[in-house]
Structure formats: structure tokens, C-alpha cells
Amino acid sequence: MKNPTTTFFSLSLLFLPLLAAAADLVPTPWPHQFHSILFMNNTKGLLQVVDLWYDWPNGRNFNIIQNQLGKKLYDLEWDNGTSYYYTLDANKECKVYRDGFLCNVWEKVDFIWYYEDVATKRPVSWAFYTGMIGHVMTFEVGQVLDDPNWQAPVYCFEGAKQDDKVMLESPFQYRGLVREFLSIPMVV
Q1: In terms of pTM, does the model score above 0.85?
Q2: What kind and span of H or E run contains 50?
Q3: For the chain (length 188 residues), average pLDDT per consecutive 10?
Q4: What is the extent of the structural domain holding 121?
């Protein structure tokens, strides 16, 4: 029978190169500024060469996009959510987008998804399973509707016609308030 210490030492020598290699598995930190040229091929067969300039400290990203057999498009993005898509040809085309939030997302029991702006920690939209999307215009934490406003009008209880039909067809049935959430970071 072999000595257990000898066996352990032999196995340690066997795995030593793997342990040394594991230190190399730590990814290189993403650079704050860089330039790269990319060949892009989407699933629809659109081919592009993208000249990418990335500048994190200054809050900007610039993609100069040459479409195969097409015009050159300039995609200038700022971290305030504003993007400019334009050409430098005689047509002087330009589209400005002031949308987009880096969001945390919570899913509520496959029914609704809540989107929160990472920077401000305020909700920006709610997406329902029906496809309807609500864009949050105000959000007042701690505000409560006065109790009298929670009462339906008297005529709702005095001989009003009752309709027992379901207003919206839903595969979900809930009893009471449901507060289960999953958190997923996402950009919208």
C-alpha cells in the first residue's frame, strides 16, 4: 500500500499546472478608452464594417458604420441617453434619439415587468403580459390616497347592473396582492 502523503503529493503535482492556469482565467479589465474595427454580419445577411471609438470617461461611444454597397452612417452615442444617427453626404440625414435607460428589471409572477433606471433608482416603465407598456411619468414614494377616495360611489351598490363577465381574459388568477420578484439587469 502506498503512503497517503506520497499519493497526495503526487496528485498535487498533477494539478499544479491547472491551478497556475486558473489565475490566467481572470478576465482583463474592460478598457476605459479604445478603438476597434468590427466586421458585423446579422442574421438577415446585412454586412457592415464598424469603426468603433469607445470613450467611457467622457461618456461617449462613436460607431462609424459602412454598410455593404450602401451609405456610411455615423452613430454618435452619449451616456445621457442621446444618440445621433446621421450621414455626412449631401442628403444631410439625421435622427436624434433621446431614449434609453440602463435598467434593473423585476418580473412579477410572469405578469408584469418593472423597469428601474440604474442611475436614479426611479421606475421608468412597466410592461404587462398583454403587451401593454406603461411609461412612468411621476412616482411619489409614500404618497397615499385619502381613505374616502377608496370607496366606490353609492350607486354602484344600489341596484346598478352587475356584470360578472371577466373584463380581460387572463391565464392568471390571483388572490390578494402578490409580491414575488426576480431581478435582472437590462437596457431598454
Answers
A1: no
A2: strand 47-55
A3: 58 63 76 92 86 90 92 87 85 78 78 84 85 82 86 78 51 40 45
A4: 102-159+177-187
